């Protein structure tokens, strides 16, 4: 019959084994974690980048596009255009890492924020609370201040305490864009961000993207509505 030997014992160490200097370890870990976080936000090299190399996409057994290559550096933007069903949303999903490329390579050396058709906001929460939930998961500090700033940028302050489910289509779209803005992620991946927006809100969106780029961010935008993004590359599918 096996004897119960109890939990395994730690091997004995020499009295001055440096591994026992516990006080050094948490500090070293804290510094390493902070370095890793900075690295992911801004990229390991300290730069923000997003690149596609000969990327092909297959969905439902059908090749949607192939040979797509582009390089985006800090301040750059690209607009993905093409008819319905050509694969614009699929390209954005590949950039986000949610869909594997059939061929080619995608590299992105920084944090990304993804805007899709769904707002991803909890419909039962007040708008400000729904935004704070996501902001608290970001690596950037001070979620409350980031949310307050985003609400102001999207002209949503008056709606902050309204449950998300009661927002109109355009207001909900602005709220979804506020989530992206509040994330302060260096790479924005926006799928049809102007859908449902009125003229004023489109202008706000354009200003927001411009400010993001001025701050060294990157924007990859799929849109069938015209958006003013000076100097943006066009990726026609
Ligand atoms: N999960 C899936 N499985 C199989 N096929 C899919 C899937 N999702 C999308 N597709 C197909 O992939 C094609 C491209 O879809 P996608 O949404 O990327 O196009 P799009 O260019 O963004 O279209 P739109 O302009 O209408 O938004 C479509 O024919 C669509 O039916």
UniProtKB/TrEMBL annotation:
Pfam families the record matches: ABC_tran (PF00005)
Gene that encodes the chain: ccmA
Record's NCBIfam families?
ccmA (TIGR01189)
What segment(s) does the record annotate as region Disordered? 1-41
Q: Tell me the InterPro entries matching this sequence.
A: AAA+_ATPase (IPR003593), ABC_transporter-like_ATP-bd (IPR003439), ABC_transptr_haem_export_CcmA (IPR005895), P-loop_NTPase (IPR027417)
**Where along the chain is composition biased (Basic residues)?**
26-41
Which residue numbers delimit the ABC transporter domain?
Answer: 50-235
- What is the protein name for this chain? Heme ABC exporter ATP-binding protein CcmA
Keyword list, A-Z: ATP-binding, Cytochrome c-type biogenesis, Membrane, Nucleotide-binding, Translocase, Transport
Please give the Gene Ontology molecular function terms for this protein.
ATP binding
PROSITE patterns with a match to the protein in the record: ABC_TRANSPORTER_2 (PS50893)
Question: Which superkingdom heads the taxonomic lineage of this protein's source?
Answer: Bacteria
């Amino acid at each position: 019959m096996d004897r119960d030997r109890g939990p395994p014992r730690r091997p004995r160490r020499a009295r001055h084994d440096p591994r026992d200097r516990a006080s050094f370890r948490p500090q070293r870990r804290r510094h390493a974690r902070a370095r890793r976080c900075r690295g992911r936000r801004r990229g390991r090299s300290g730069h923000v980048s997003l690149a596609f190399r000969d990327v092909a996409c297959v969905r439902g057994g059908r090749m949607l596009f192939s040979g797509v290559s582009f390089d985006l550096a800090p301040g750059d933007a690209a607009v993905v255009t093409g008819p319905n069903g050509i694969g614009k949303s699929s390209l954005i999903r590949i950039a986000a890492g949610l869909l594997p490329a059939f061929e080619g390579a995608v590299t992105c050396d920084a944090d990304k924020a993804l805007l899709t058709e769904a707002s991803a906001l909890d419909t039962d929460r007040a708008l400000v609370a729904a935004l704070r939930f996501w902001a608290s998961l970001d690596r950037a500090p001070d979620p409350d201040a980031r949310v307050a700033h985003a609400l102001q940028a999207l002209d949503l302050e008056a709606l902050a305490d309204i449950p998300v489910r009661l927002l109109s289509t355009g207001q909900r779209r602005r709220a979804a864009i506020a989530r992206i803005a509040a994330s302060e992620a260096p790479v924005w991946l926006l799928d049809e961000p102007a859908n449902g927006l009125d003229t004023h809100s489109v202008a706000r969106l354009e200003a927001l993207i411009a400010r993001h780029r001025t701050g060294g961010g990157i924007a990859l935008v799929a849109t069938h509505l015209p958006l003013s993004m000076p100097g943006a590359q066009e990726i026609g599918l």
